[in-house]
From TrEMBL:
This is beta-glucosidase. InterPro entries: Cellulose_Degrad_GH3 (IPR051915), Fn3-like (IPR026891), GH (IPR017853), Glyco_hydro_3_AS (IPR019800), Glyco_hydro_3_C (IPR002772), Glyco_hydro_3_C_sf (IPR036881), Glyco_hydro_3_N (IPR001764), Glyco_hydro_3_N_sf (IPR036962). It comes from Paenibacillus ihbetae. Keywords: Glycosidase, Hydrolase, Signal. Belongs to the glycosyl hydrolase 3 family.
Length: 719
């Protein structure tokens, strides 16, 4: 259809039909599904009529080509004007082939692989009938107590923005209208959901507008600049107003300043939740505030269908706002080609061929390898293939390695670590749990100690269950469960070399394992091929190259702890001991246990002299920073060379360091290569107190190194 045809279609719609297009329901409320809704249960509770459901515009959560085709066919029979349904789902880090969690993908620092993972997820989803994914989640996060850190790529706005773009490219491709194996992407959660107080899900967010614009908004904007089709409103308040009813945020910034004219959708029931927030008296006021804010689709609450007709009749809402929202929905359906082909890419036969195919599993393996981060190694890793190994821990033979939001991925399809180790270890391999995730009995411990005594090296497979992170998975205690720490204490007494593999969805407080183990490999939730990838890393078939994108705290009491912090007026001088009246803890270092950007390798790298092409830059002239990096070890490895800048004096306080670029160098033993960065004036801009985005003349420090802590530095001036 062209725009005139869409306009003609809109004019033919009754007000009730238009408002129904704004309603999103789960599939069980629709006719034509196995568990179709009746005017009982959920439909009755929501006060929905059959006509409302039959006219609703989109479906949440259904997948499978045959199921979606059947529902679409039944829906179209009842559609007076032939307007097809949109099918949406949470395809966050894979559909059937599950990739590492997004936080792990961020630790790969590999934008091409990240894009490929989204492309594969789109391909599998589209052939199964899905049109829209609720991804990428680009919320900046500094608090690992929040369970949803597993969905983000970390604590840095610049890096999050790069990954946001990569994911959008992967999901949508370059020709969404013509490519039936792509999805429309929906960036979330707008805005600042990752700053929930106390790391508690759905909790209050409160910050200055300058802080919001400087750190939290850039990644959403990056996704939209890449062409992201949809935005999801967050659950939280922003400046005291729930996001789903926040006119300044949605109509002011998102639509007004940024010019976004795509679909804005609520999160699950977040429009009605304005009542619980205390920002709306009832469903009617919630509908009023959400429509005024510009929310087009209401997910799983009936405020719009029940109250927008009366709000229009009373003159409180102009029908033109409804028309704008409906037109945006029609335009996306048209862009996806649904008017010509309501089933789009859904194809049961091709679905059987594509889902979890070898090509997709190989990509999942590659990303699991590159996402894993070697946190410590005192020479224990890599293992010798002929070693006698005791693989001990609740993850030793565990299939729960997919992580939260694993869509239709099946745990039983995941390659378990124990299974993969059996195929790779030629020496004796003994596998035993030692304990459950959060409990231990005497028999389990006895078997673990017996296995460890007979082994040359102990490999501990520890971590969180997948349900311990993700949505609703906030924790105040982010150490390993007590039973696992007790297992570590008992095994440590045997004085055998210990390598620990940690499976988890967040940065953990590693007390009780980091000092006790000789090596620590952060595996995250590595996805369908996780066991194979981790096994190959442990025995040295692959060389770890991941780098952290969230800092690991010394303890939970430090949180939030992040690399791009301010200096304070009384900074602590590490060379001076005993000072009290400085910004410090009396029972802990200020610094994290492991900084942003950190990660080890089985080889070593040496940095040469940091050279600048000039000591000054101007608005029109840039400078170049160059450094030679040499692989001084005996194995091929990848070094992620990172560039940071500090503005020494700003109109408002500036961070100690800010990531401004990185390069990944793959080097053979003895090989050297030059990492080169161009620094221009626009990289030095920031939001001033009046919210203007400009740079200030003055002095800057430039840092280059393997992480945010261990850097060479030089100085330059902006004149």
């Amino acid at each position: 259809m062209d725009q005139k045809q869409l306009t003609d279609l809109l004019t033919k719609m009754t007000l009730e039909e238009k408002i129904a297009q704004l309603l999103q329901l789960t599939s069980n409320l629709h006719e034509g599904t196995e568990d179709q809704g009746q005017i009982t249960g959920p439909m009755e509770e929501m006060g929905l009529t059959t006509d409302m459901v039959r006219a609703s515009g989109s479906v949440l959560g259904l997948s499978g080509a045959a199921s979606i085709i059947a529902l679409q066919q039944n829906y179209m029979k009842n559609s007076r004007l032939g307007i097809p349904l949109l099918f949406m789902a949470d395809v966050v880090h894979g559909f059937k082939t599950i990739f590492p969690i997004p936080l792990a993908i961020g630790c790969s620092w590999d934008l091409e692989l990240a894009e490929k993972s989204a492309e594969i997820a789109a391909r599998e989803s589209a052939v199964s009938g899905i049109h829209v994914t609720f991804a990428p989640m680009v919320d900046l996060v500094r608090d690992p107590r929040w369970g949803r850190v597993m969905e983000t790529t970390g604590e840095d706005p610049y890096l999050n923005g790069l990954f946001a773009r990569a994911f959008v490219r992967g999901y949508q491709g370059s020709a969404l209208a013509e490519d039936n194996e792509r999805l429309a992407a929906c960036v979330k959660h707008f805005a600042a959901y990752g700053a929930a107080e106390g790391g508690r899900d759905y909790n209050t967010v409160d910050m200055s507008e300058r802080q919001l614009r400087e750190y939290y908004l850039p990644a959403y904007k990056a996704a939209l600049d890449e062409g992201c089709e949809m935005v999801m409103a967050s659950f939280n308040t922003v400046d005291g107003i729930p996001a789903s009813g926040n006119e300044k945020l949605m109509r002011g910034i998102l639509r007004g300043e940024w010019g976004f004219d795509g679909i804005l959708i609520s999160d699950w029931a977040s429009i009605r939740e304005m009542i619980a927030h205390g920002a709306a008296e009832d469903d009617r006021e919630a509908a009023y505030r959400a429509m005024r804010a510009g929310v087009d689709i209401e997910m799983m609450t009936p405020c719009y269908v029940h109250h927008l007709p009366n709000l229009i009749k009373s003159g409180l809402i102009d029908e033109s706002l409804i028309d704008e929202a409906v037109m945006r929905i029609l335009q996306l359906k048209n862009k996806l080609g649904l008017f010509e082909n309501p089933f789009r890419g859904a194809d049961p036969e091709r679905e059987r061929e594509l889902l979890f195919c070898d090509e997709h599993r190989q990509a999942a393996y590659d990303l699991a390898v590159k996402s894993s981060v070697l946190l410590k190694n005192n020479g224990v890793l890599p293992l010798q293939p002929d070693s006698n190994v005791a693989l001990i821990g609740p993850f030793a033979d565990q299939e729960d390695i997919l992580g939260w939001w694993s869509c239709v991925g099946a745990k039983e399809d995941a390659v378990k670590l124990g299974t993969a180790m059996k195929e790779r270890i030629s020496g004796k391999l003994t596998i035993t749990a030692g304990c459950n995730f959060d409990s231990m009995d005497a028999k389990q411990l006895e078997l673990a100690l017996d296995a460890a005594r007979e082994a040359d090296v102990i490999v501990l497979a520890l971590g969180e269950q997948s349900e311990m992170s993700g949505e609703g998975g906030s924790r105040t205690d982010i150490t390993l469960p007590k039973a696992q720490l007790e297992l570590v204490r008992h095994l440590k007494q045997l004085n055998k070399p210990i390598a620990a593999v940690i499976f988890n969805g967040r940065p953990l407080d590693l007390q009780g394992i980091f000092d006790e183990a000789d090596a620590v490999l952060e595996a995250w939730f590595p996805g369908s091929e996780g066991g194979a990838a981790i096994a190959d890393l442990l025995i040295g078939h692959m060389n770890p190259s991941g780098r952290l994108t969230m800092s690991f705290p010394q303890s939970v009491g430090q949180i939030p702890v992040y690399y791009n912090a301010f200096n304070t007026g009384r900074p602590m001088d590490p060379s001076k001991t005993g000072e009290r009246y400085v910004s410090k803890y009396i029972d802990s270092p200020n610094e994290p246990l492991l900084p942003f950007g950190y990660g080890l390798s089985y080889t070593t790298f040496e940095y040469g002299e940091l050279q600048l092409s000039s000591s000054e830059i101007t608005a029109d002239q840039h400078l170049t920073a160059r450094i030679q990096v040499t692989n001084t070890g005996t194995r091929t490895g990848v070094e992620t060379v990172q560039l940071y800048i500090r503005d020494m004096t700003g109109e408002v306080v500036r961070p100690l360091r800010e990531l401004k670029g990185f390069q990944q160098l793959e080097l053979q033993p003895g090989e050297s290569s030059i990492a080169e960065f161009t620094i221009s004036e626009d990289m030095l801009r920031y939001h001033h107190s009046d919210l203007s985005f400009t740079s200030d003349p003055g002095s800057f420090q430039l840092f280059v190194g393997p992480n945010s802590r261990d850097c060479l530095q030089a100085s330059f001036k902006l004149v």
